[in-house]
């Protein structure tokens, strides 16, 4: 079993979460924190992949120019409407 050392503020936070009834014990608080970290890592990996895809599109000249924010907004709304159907 791994021992985790917390500073006073972290320990107080864990105790507050337990006293508020959000968690039954410190292990549950740590598990919730680890789950959030896993979720963040997953989202970060997805964002990095999308950034890489976008950069690849730019490198290959697959870009669209807009003369105004309104044009961009109109395109986004059209594509969103098409996605909904």
From TrEMBL:
<dbReference type="Pfam" id="PF03693">
    <property type="entry name" value="ParD_antitoxin"/>
</dbReference>
<dbReference type="InterPro" id="IPR038296">
    <property type="entry name" value="ParD_sf"/>
</dbReference>
<protein>
    <submittedName>
        <fullName>Antitoxin ParD1/3/4</fullName>
    </submittedName>
</protein>
<dbReference type="InterPro" id="IPR022789">
    <property type="entry name" value="ParD"/>
</dbReference>
